[in-house]
Specification:
It is a single chain. By secondary structure, this protein is α/β, with parallel strands linked by helices. It has a single domain, classed as Lumazine/riboflavin synthase (Rossmann fold), CATH 3.40.50. It is built from five helices and four strands, in the order βαβαβαβαα. The protein has helices spanning about 10-30, 45-55, 75-95, 110-115, 120-140, and strands at about 5-10, 35-40, 60-70, 100-105. It has a four-stranded parallel sheet, with helices on both faces. α1 (about 10-30) crosses α5 (about 120-140) and α2 (about 45-55) packs parallel to α3. The longest helix has 22 residues, at about 120-140. The chain is globular and about 50 Å long. The mean pLDDT is about 95.
Length: about 140
């Protein structure tokens, strides 16, 4: 399988471990490092556009979108988190491959740190969904 990871650089202290946990889980499931492409984007807001480009390219069996949006004192959190969730969802509904939403939306840094291990969960979900998509394609 070939997998793309779209990773936000903002809050890198959380996103980088998410990506590493995802890569480790992919390796455990037999995906070679050279079959994993990581596209870094500035922040969670930019994730959907790049996920769409990767999905449309048709070179990947699954796309994992990871980022971290931490609530602050302004409404900026709501706009960024909402756009990331909606945008990735739109890409997922139209793509012929699974697109996994792995953007943490948390209240504080402590919650983000507690959820870093979910990177592996996102990778396993991507592979499970890619297998299911292949099975569905074979039956249609």
């Amino acid at each position: 399988m070939k997998v793309a990871i779209v990773a936000a650089r903002f809050n890198a202290f959380i996103v980088e471990p998410l990506v590493e946990k995802a890569r480790a889980a992919l390796r455990e499931r037999g995906v070679a490092d050279e079959d994993v492409f990581v596209a870094e984007v500035p922040g969670a807001f930019e994730i959907p556009a790049v996920a769409r480009r990767l999905a449309d390219a048709g070179r990947f069996d699954a796309i994992i979108c990871v980022g971290c949006v931490i609530r602050g004192a302004t409404s900026h959190y709501d706009f960024v988190a909402g756009h990331a969730a909606y945008g990735v969802g739109e890409v997922a509904m139209k793509a012929k491959v699974p697109v996994i939403f792995g953007v943490l939306t948390v209240e504080n840094v402590e919650q983000a740190i507690e959820r870093v291990g979910h990177g592996a969960d996102f990778a396993r979900a991507a592979l499970d969904m890619a297998s299911l998509y292949r099975e569905l394609d074979a039956r249609s």
